[in-house]
Amino acid sequence: MFAIFKKELRAYFTTPIGYVYAGVFLAAAALICAFTTLQQASYNTSSYFQYLLFTFIVLIPLLTMRMFSEERKTRTEQLLLTAPITITGMVLGKYFAAFTLFAATVLVSCLNFVPLLGYTVIEQAAATSDTHIGPMGGQIVGCLLGILLIGAAFIAIGLFVSSLTENQLASAVITIGVLAVLIFVGIVAAKVNSSVVRTVLGWISVLSRYDNFSLGLFDFSALLYYVSISGVFIFLTVRIYEKRRWG
Amino acid sequence: MIKIDHLVKNYGANRAVDDISFEVAPGEIVGLLGPNGAGKSTTMNILAGYLSSTSGRVLVDGLNVLDAPLEVKRRIGYLPEQPPLYLDMTVEEYLIFVYNLKGCTLNRTKHLQEICEVVKLTDVYKRLIKNLSKGFRQRVGIAQALIGNPPVIIFDEPTVGLDPKQIIEIRNLIRTLGRDHTVILSTHILQEVQAVCDRIIIINKGRVVADELTENINRVGANCNRYQAKICGPQREVLSMLRDRTDVVYAEALSARDGDAYVYHIESAKGVDIRKSLFYALSAKGWPLVGLETLGMNLEDIFITVVDKTSDITAQRKPGRAGKKGPSRSVEKDIAQSILDATAAKQESIAPYEGDE
Predict the structure, then answer these.
(1) Domain B225-294 belongs to what architecture?
(2) Which residue does chain A place closest to B104, by CA atoms?
(3) Are the beta carbons of A14 and B97 separated by less than 8 Å?
(4) pTM value?
(5) ipTM of the complex
(6) Any residues with CB less than 8 A from the CB of B131 and at least 6 apart, and which?
(7) How many interchain CB pairs under 8 A, A with B?
(8) Chunked in runs of 10, what are the mean pLDDT values of chain B (357 residues)?
(9) Domain B2-75+151-220: top CATH class
């Protein structure tokens, strides 16, 4: 498993994909941060993280599209499947490689908060009253945790899609479609009048469980929800490989 | 070492492997021979644990692939038909990756160095695999299979796409490996198994149609009474002298020439070796015999005969009778008989000039 983890992580940086992903992610994050906080003269970061989630629709498939598709196309999966490792080990190696790069870029994007802290220092020095000035630490930590969990779930979905096809492009497009549905369904749900439909759509929506995180609350049930999405799709990916062996 | 027991593999309605059974002893080099699509690769893929069988079992070292997949996979080095290479790695990176993947415990630098020397990769060790030629890529694939020093090595068509020099090198390598490994290789090139393998298993349409020691098959092929002779001297007189001999049933002059020698096609009476007496007779006449070659039945002939014969046999069988025992002993006997029949038949017909083989 560790060998595959290392190989995949390395592969991101020997191909353009890792750079494209990291570059676009960091640029988008910086832009979004500038527009939502600096331009609005606001310390509130919740909409920054909200918008960041939308970039995942396009960026997560970049991480996952080639994972299994390419192995299948170049027949290198024969090496992995005849090596003395389990299929689960192989899938987890790839999953954690994608998640590591994802988490690393998310952490690097925290540099965006540096200007906010700068303003905080200046404004606090000039402040006359006792009110809180600066970004809310709880909210930032909650949101970071939230988007890391959502990213982890999305990566598992992307991996699953990648294991279905040997065409990278198809894999990417399908993943984009699935992730877009999962995100936009929550927005649609808010516009629906029928409470039944709204509840059902809310169930599908990954965003509905993110709300507590954005308030800076630690929501254990949401954590469990995202972790189980990851688990289910990793399990399904393993099953796809098992099934192909028997097919 | 390896025991394959009534192996069946269906791809949907298509049966790729149909009840194959054979055993391979430790240290044996076995060649799986068969036309394209015969089921060789499928058999090997099942053996290596890449595919699962529909029914039947595979034992390696007494371990079932299904019960102890990791243990079995640890014992097998596998080179698939298309070498599983990551093109954007260097040879070094790739081999280190495979080393880690297999969880190898041997001294890494030393082990990889040894393998690279064996397969002659040292010169390209630091180069990207995508920049290597087909021959080198194949060798990287072989190196990959050797990592961890597995007791069983499986090569699926190891010499496809290589130039003649590389083919010879790879064959020598396989023979060397055969000294302390069990090797199974597949090919549709007959010289290859003849040159390398101790035993030949011929597979056609998913069935084992022949399982013989190489020397036995060669012996069948050598049992022949047709010759090609190159004799200097007046063509007409030589020919009439040949035809006058009582032990020659047929002689003809071919259009080919070798210097001032004419080429003749001679068939002797059955069971008579005319080579020595022919030599003395010609030298008495003052016509030097500059070349004499037995036109044995080569493996191609045997192969085609066996494969044709079994196609007939399978065609005669009623389709769709799954789960029955086969191939029966009688079928295998048919094959052996058909090889002999074919040899005889070939001797009765007159083959045209066959070129230098």
Answers:
(1) 2-Layer Sandwich (3.30)
(2) A84
(3) no
(4) 0.81
(5) 0.89
(6) none
(7) 68
(8) 90 88 91 86 91 90 88 93 92 95 91 90 92 90 93 90 83 88 87 85 86 75 72 88 85 82 83 83 89 71 66 51 42 52 48 41
(9) alpha beta
